[in-house]
Design brief:
- By secondary structure, this protein is mainly alpha-helical.
- The protein is 53% helix and 7% strand.
- Strands 1-2-3 form a three-stranded parallel β-sheet.
- The structure holds tryptophanyl-5'AMP.
- The site of tryptophanyl-5'AMP (TYM) has 26 residues, from strand 1, helix 1 and helix 8.
- It catalyses: tRNA(Trp) + L-tryptophan + ATP = L-tryptophyl-tRNA(Trp) + AMP + diphosphate + H(+).
- It comes from Sinimarinibacterium thermocellulolyticum.
- Its EC number is 6.1.1.2.
């Protein structure tokens, strides 16, 4: 079976953006792929984390993966730091990635302008660790939101470069992965600032819909979302960013097309439209929230999932790392 891999940083709280851009699209993939989904704690520490919160987030996010419908029997769920091959391959790939390439990464430019007092080497080489995450599993496809596209292009470049340097053309060491980006929902924007993406590290909670927001909070946040003075419901990101974002949310959450949404709500003011968006989000999150508490409280169960996940992930990752070491000329222990 072909392989899919993706991951999320366990910081802040999971948002509707993470769900519609990533997790929701992961759910059906196990039927056609071997699926690996990580919590990337090593990526999270590229900005300062409180250890107590980081530990809590790892369990919270794992429980949410499962509550969203990722069944650990059909998907390998694991924590990045439990599989040492990630750090080991990242070192190797650091030596095959150029300073100039990393300097051009927009996520690095954003984060280094936000965290000016801590522009550490890990933040700079963040995309290299991500390339290691993906290439270790020989992933064919990587289901992510739009903001990860540039990192995936770098991953492909590094894979091709390493293959060219160390492998025969018909026996590549790394599979060159394809991004898998959903047609709607790949870029959910902030409710108050619809020109910026919705982010789990946002300090303004009214800008963000969290997976664990109670229904009345969701309704309130959507009713107060920024729109514009008109009453037209049409998809126009440049002229109507707020309305377009709510249309994307409704389309991705309900499976409806943007056209049918425009046809139903255009010209009627925003009240009825916003109610429909809120209803669709509440309906999407209700089953997740209903399952969450029980999953989260079963700490032994969660730890079993992670032990099993780490074992299955390591088996695949170690095989790739061994081939890389051999290709490099590292001698066996
Ligand atoms: P992270 O933790 O920022 O986000 C996790 C996933 O959610 C998607 N996403 C969004 N999609 C739509 N709208 C939004 N507003 C939105 N915000 C986030 C992201 O695109 C992502 O798919 N570098 C990655 C984590 C990572 C990874 C990997 C991903 C590390 N190693 C290997 C794939 C494969 C990140 O920071 O995601």
């Amino acid at each position: 079976k072909p392989v899919v891999l993706s991951g999320i940083q366990p910081s802040g709280h999971l948002t509707l953006g993470n769900y519609l851009g990533a997790i929701k699209n992961w759910l059906p993939l196990h039927e056609r792929y071997d699926c690996y989904y990580m919590l990337v704690d090593m990526h999270a520490i590229t900005v300062r984390q409180d250890p107590v919160l980081l530990r809590e987030r790892c369990y919270e996010f794992l429980a949410l993966y499962i509550a969203c419908g990722l069944d650990p029997r059909h998907n390998v769920l694991f924590v990045q730091s439990h599989v040492p091959a990630h750090a080991r391959l990242a070192w190797v790939l650091n030596c095959y990635t150029q300073f100039g390439e990393l300097s051009r990464m927009t996520q690095f430019k954003d984060k280094s302008s936000k965290h000016v007092d801590n522009i550490n080497a890990g933040l700079f080489s963040y995309p290299v660790l991500m390339a290691a995450d993906i290439l270790l599993y020989q992933a064919d496809a990587v289901p992510v939101g739009d903001d990860q596209k540039q990192h995936l292009e770098l991953t492909r470049d590094v894979a091709i470069r390493f293959n060219n340097a160390h492998a025969e053309p018909d026996k590549p060491i790394f599979t060159v992965p394809e991004p898998m980006i959903p047609p709607v929902g790949a870029r959910i924007m902030g409710l108050q600032e619809p020109t910026k993406k919705m982010s789990k590290s946002d300090d303004a909670p009214t800008n963000v819909l969290y997976l664990l927001d109670p229904p009345d909070t969701i309704v309130r946040k959507i009713k107060r979302a920024v729109t514009d003075p008109g009453n037209e419901v049409r998809f126009d990101v440049a002229e109507k960013p707020g309305v377009s974002n709510l249309m994307s949310i409704l389309a991705a959450a309900s499976g409806r097309s943007l056209e049918s949404i425009a046809a139903e709500y255009d010209g009627q003011g925003y009240g009825k439209f916003k109610q429909a968006v809120a209803d669709a989000v509440v309906a999407t999150l209700e089953p997740v929230q209903a399952r969450y508490r029980d999953v989260r409280d079963d700490i032994q169960g969660l730890r079993r999932v992670l032990r099993d996940g780490a074992e299955r992930a390591s088996a695949r990752a170690d095989a790739t790392l061994a081939r890389v070491h051999e290709a490099l000329g590292f001698i066996p222990a």
